[in-house]
Amino acid sequence: MSTREYDLIVIGAGPVGENVADRATQGGLRVAIVESELVGGECSYWACMPSKALLRSGAALRAARDVDGARQAMTGSIDVAATLRRRDAVVHDWDDASQVEWLQGAGIDLVRGHGRLSGEREVTVTGEDGGTTVLTARHAVAISTGTAALLPDIPGLRDARPWTSRDATGVRDVPASLAILGGGVVGSEMATLFTSFGVPVTMIARSGLLGGVEPFAGEAVAKALTDAGADLRTGVEVARVERDSSGQVVLSLSDGSTVRAAEILVATGRVPRTADIGLEVVGLEPGAWLDVDDTMRVRGVDWLYGVGDVNHRVLLTHQGKYQARAAGDVIAARAHGAAVDDAPWGRHVATADHAVVPQVVFTAPEVAAVGHTEKSATAAGIRTRVLDYDMSWVAGASTFADHYQGKARAIVDEERRVLVGATFVGPEVGEMLHAATIAIMGEVPIDRLWHAVPSYPTLSEVWLRWLEEFGR
Ligand SMILES: Cc1cc2nc3c(=O)[nH]c(=O)nc-3n(C[C@H](O)[C@H](O)[C@H](O)COP(=O)(O)OP(=O)(O)OC[C@H]3O[C@@H](n4cnc5c(N)ncnc54)[C@H](O)[C@@H]3O)c2cc1C
């Protein structure tokens, strides 16, 4: 056993932990980061990066097929093996050497192994060989251990050896058929992917697709998946799962029907990776989400921080990294006894988590949303004006593709005359989202937006159409 002392210890070197460590180091602290798997975390190797790399081949093919002249050159179907090779390159063959090099360059010490709180400001790391290292922190410990897939309590499911998102994004042998349980972002993206590979997909989505966004977005994705051959079952639940003697997975549904598939992917949510990190040492419940304030400090433990997915504020990489910038900076400020800027929208708080969260879903069509939906704006008591526009009507759509289909919705707060939400559905709309994020975040008055002139002919002309519909 060896003992080392630092200013800050970060448990979990995913995108969030890395950024907490980096900001605190830039703030003059000595930082150790503990990682039990790969430096770079879920996002780099099993989530964002491989999924988006895999989805891109199908998106590029669909785009080319919708442009006369390019379409004629598209004579084959998707090359699955080449797509998987591209994914392997994007995840560096699950080798974290480049991220370790980055940590070294940033002056952060890496301790490999499983980290657990073992006392006040103390973390014990158990290495692969069983050896332990005790790290003590002069100022703080930050937990950024992320999440794992949730396996619902369905009879027979665990014994049926279900896939989780890791198996789907790390796929090597494409299954002959796939059942997907869950209609959220992961389920919808993976249904898009495997249908693009020509795999028969059956999706069981109790309450439709993409529940958190405007209903027209989920409906558009559901229609596109069905048109692409997926079998979408909504309004039903899985009562039982078993793997039969031929190796097939058999799902018994609540409506009495049966679904058979070579594999089943469970995409029904996430659980925090906090079951075995010593939370009991500080009187917290193992396995629970970490309850934090806006500086990411765990309520009731003034030296402990919970940053990223593990605090359940927003389960997205960019939002977690935003929290990490605030947390790394505030930990350094508190360590130096400097002023803390924790008023809303201050440097040391992640205020946008409550107000302006952008998200792109890489389905076909893409869905890009930020801020309020019509439903959430109304529930928040905002006097709402909804502006809908068919994106195929803007000039940019006709040069972009031969049959562009899409829809854009703006939610305007009529009293304050500012945008409070935007949703785009259509090919490539993800790249349009940041303009809306800035307009909402900056509370740019509608009257001023008239002077933000979208380029002709681009899809962004939809902004002008919204303004025309709203009126001056
Ligand atoms: C299939 C899929 C696709 C996604 N796509 C996107 C996307 O396109 N865009 C987006 O913004 N978000 C996406 N997400 C969400 C995104 O992956 C997470 O929001 C992000 O990874 C959270 O980062 P994190 O650093 O908090 O946690 P993680 O990335 O989960 O990293 C946590 C790290 O902590 C380590 N760890 C855990 N416990 C311990 C311990 N006790 N000791 C030491 N180390 C430990 C883990 O090994 C891991 O490396 C996706 C998620 C999934 C499942």
What is the terminal-to-terminal distance? Answer: 71 Å
Helix run count: 15
Gross morphology: globular
Q: Beta-sheet strand percentage?
A: 15-25%
The stretches of 5 or more residues where confidence is low (pLDDT under 50) are none
Major sheet details = 7 strands, mixed
Overall average pLDDT: 97
Q: What molecules are bound to this protein?
A: flavin-adenine dinucleotide
Helix fraction?
Answer: 25-40%
How much is the radius of gyration in Å?
24 Å
Structural class: alpha/beta
**Total beta-strand segments:** 21
Write the layout of secondary structure elements.
Elements: E1 2-11, H1 15-26, E2 31-35, H2 41-45, H3 48-65, H4 80-90, H5 97-106, E3 109-112, E4 114-119, E5 122-126, E6 132-143, E7 147-149, H6 165-169, E8 178-181, H7 185-196, E9 201-205, H8 215-227, E10 231-234, E11 238-243, E12 249-253, E13 258-261, E14 263-266, E15 270-272, E16 304-306, H9 317-335, H10 352-355, E17 358-361, E18 366-371, H11 374-379, E19 384-390, H12 395-400, E20 407-413, E21 418-426, H13 433-441, H14 446-449, H15 462-470
Parallel strand pairs: 1-2, 1-6, 2-3, 6-16, 8-9, 8-14, 9-10
Antiparallel strand pairs: 4-5, 5-6, 7-15, 11-12, 12-13, 17-18, 18-21, 19-20, 20-21
Helix pairs in contact: 1-9, 3-4, 3-7
This protein binds flavin-adenine dinucleotide.
Flavin-adenine dinucleotide binds next to helix 1, strand 2, helix 2, helix 3 and strand 4.
